[in-house]
Write a sequence for this structure.
């Protein structure tokens, strides 16, 4: 299985801050990397696919980057509604594997 | 617009089989490219991909569950189902169904989720 190591596991930041979450794959996964946002009691929502493509309707303050084994989700100017847990997902090979999640809280 | 509606019991006894169904609305389950998947999330924990199926019968399972899991399609009802046998408390989780747009593509959209508790 491809292991996805996500960090940090939790993060507290203020409105307007720039926030970065990283995911490292245990082997090269090309561009087969997506990011999801999950709010309590809800199903995960796709934010970014193929490393850096924003899902329709996702604010432009979200961006993704990376290649090979190292990937990053950045929120350029944090908003209150961004409080959620974020997961990366590799879909380069079965079984699909998720990062452990990053719980983002707003001060 | 594709919608996935989940159904099934919220309580299962240890050693029994967990069975959930996902009804697909707004799209045919027989679409040549789509795969239909299950993902679970234990309370307070992260996401675990369980497996998927193509209407033609191809399945892919997580090796961690492969000996106990079965995913099937009922095209006549536009549904797919998850069976997980010999459950224990460790299988207590929210179970989600989802669609993959193709082989090795990402799951989206997702069903609403079903909380399943394994307890006597």
């Amino acid at each position: 299985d491809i292991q996805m190591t996500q960090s940090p596991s939790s993060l507290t930041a203020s409105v307007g801050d720039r926030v970065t979450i990283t995911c490292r794959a245990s082997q090269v996964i090309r561009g087969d990397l997506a990011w999801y946002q999950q709010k309590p009691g809800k199903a995960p929502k796709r934010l970014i696919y193929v490393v850096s493509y924003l899902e329709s309707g996702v604010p432009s303050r979200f961006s993704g980057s990376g290649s090979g084994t190292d990937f990053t989700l950045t929120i350029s100017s944090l908003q209150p509604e961004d409080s959620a847990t974020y997961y990366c997902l590799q879909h380069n090979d079965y079984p699909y594997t998720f990062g452990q999640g990053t719980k983002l809280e707003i001060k | 617009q594709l919608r996935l509606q989940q159904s099934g019991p919220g309580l299962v006894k240890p050693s029994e089989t967990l069975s959930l169904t996902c009804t697909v609305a707004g799209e045919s389950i027989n679409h040549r490219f789509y795969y239909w998947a299950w993902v679970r999330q234990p309370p307070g924990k992260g996401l675990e991909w369980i497996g998927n199926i193509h209407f033609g019968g191809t399945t892919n399972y997580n090796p961690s569950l492969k000996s106990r899991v079965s995913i099937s399609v009922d095209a006549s009802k536009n549904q797919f189902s998850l069976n997980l046998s010999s459950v224990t408390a460790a299988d207590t989780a929210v179970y989600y169904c989802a669609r993959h747009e193709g082989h090795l593509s990402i799951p989206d959209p997702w069903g609403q989720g079903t909380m399943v508790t394994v307890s006597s």
Observations:
- The longest strand of chain A covers residues 19-25.
- The mean pLDDT of chain A is 97.
